[in-house]
What we know:
With 461 residues, the chain is of the alpha/beta class. It has two domains: 283 residues, 3-Layer(bba) Sandwich (FAD/NAD(P)-binding domain); 154 residues, FAD/NAD(P)-binding domain (3-Layer(bba) Sandwich), CATH 3.50.50.60. Helices cover 24% and strands 21% of the residues. It is built from twelve helices and 23 strands. β17 and β18 form a beta hairpin. α1 packs parallel to α11 and α4 packs across α11. The radius of gyration is 25 Å and the shape is globular. It starts with 15 loop residues before the first strand and ends in a 5-residue tail after the last helix. The site of flavin-adenine dinucleotide has 33 residues, from α1, β7 and α11. Flavin-adenine dinucleotide binds next to α1, β7 and α11.
Amino acid sequence: MMIILFFPAVTVDVQVSKFYSDPQIAGNGPAGIALSSFLSGMHPFYDVRHPHENVTVHERLLANQDFSLIDQDLSWSSDLTELSQSGRPLSVLYDMLVRPGADMGSESPGCLQWEMHREREVDHMVIGETKIGGSWNEYDPAMLTVSFSDWMDMPGLTMEQWLCGRPMVKRLPSVAIATYLKKYVEKLRLRKKFHQHFVVSSIRKVGDVWVTEGKRSTDGRMFRIRSKQVVVACGKTSPRKLELPNEELCSSNIVYDVRTLKERLDSTKKTVIDEECYDTPSTSTSAPVIVVGDGVSSVDCVRHCLERDIPVVHVIRRTLRELRNVMLSRLSPAHYSEYTNIYRMMIGRHAHKNYQRLLDSNISSISKIHVEITTGTREIIEMPYSTLAVCIGRESHFSSVFDSAHTFLDYRSQQDPTLFAVGAYAGDHFVRFLVGGCLRVAQHINCNMNNNNVEKGVKLV
Ligand SMILES: Cc1cc2nc3c(=O)[nH]c(=O)nc-3n(C[C@H](O)[C@H](O)[C@H](O)COP(=O)(O)OP(=O)(O)OC[C@H]3O[C@@H](n4cnc5c(N)ncnc54)[C@H](O)[C@@H]3O)c2cc1C
């Protein structure tokens, strides 16, 4: 006789790691790191030994020299013409205090001094899907930064201090920035605040508490974090697509960043190291790489092709007139020769046997072997290609984790005063500016946490 035993169905309780943290910061790139530093007690004070040359800035800060910038009302910065024009007065104020006259090549000392006040620490948690350093873990490690190394400084421990001396070159490879960000977190003893490989899938409000949920990418374990305040520091990490009907179907021929293009080229071509080889006729018979976009990433793509003797067709949406005003046009040849050389080809001042530009043009359709390019005069050009490199900017899809839409003003949600945004997600794309935005959010959070500023008689807005 066969006995069949039925066991009652076991309810598998999916294990969920639960945390309480206030605030919770989603994103562990430069913005998440800078904010964590401020919340851990790293405070900037006006250094009266190095007064700022702007009289209003000097007088305002001098009057509050005993208070950290986090504890003082800096709203006057939006009344200063030179700051208000930027639309982000505090970001620009912070930059000009840390690096006075940097854009004019000045190397004057900064006007801030830093003090660590551990007793002011606001308990918080920083989560991110990457390792500490955010997007800087994803870039081509050899890519030289557009920013000079001191423009990448985090609060209170500069690149120069970390390297124990000023770097010999102005621009460092991206791997140095990624390493600096990790070492910064360790040196400031912020490491326990950071939880890597946490991927957020939803953030919703239950009563007056935010509930952030997601999965750890390392072991699939779910997490749930409850907090009174949330800061979105998730950057803009998804490349913009052309949004053409066949784009997904042709994805094996399309790349959206320099690193992937370089890896693809390196697996098929050898590098032309000697620049003089540029003058010899092209040995390449292959279909061209088509590069779309006119920012530094697209220029990097063009450069990597030319260095490998690969023909490039550069599709640029702007007209010649518009192209004369882009950021590339303002870069100094002394520091950015790799960009200015190609910019000259883009505006037609220089020619190269392997480089063809199409201005005022767009990719209008794509198949696995051809692209169709529509020019400003409505001419349609059909062209074979080997790879299509699309570098037309980045966006974020993070807002889909919320169940309702939020708009941000002064880094705070206009719909909910306990939700904030910093860094690239909030429109501060460069590290030199995003730290000032983090300072503003540290002010908001300190204010919300009702710390002892009221006793000090300092007005926070
Ligand atoms: C090719 C390139 C070169 C650049 N060069 C410079 C330069 O020279 N100087 C400069 O100042 N800036 C440069 N930038 C801009 C760069 O974006 C900023 O330096 C900076 O990284 C922005 O910091 P962030 O903290 O806002 O975002 P990020 O560094 O992008 O960090 C955001 C983090 O949030 C994470 N995240 C996103 N969604 C989720 C989710 N659902 N769950 C969990 N985590 C999530 C991301 O994975 C990432 O780890 C460059 C950008 C590119 C693309």
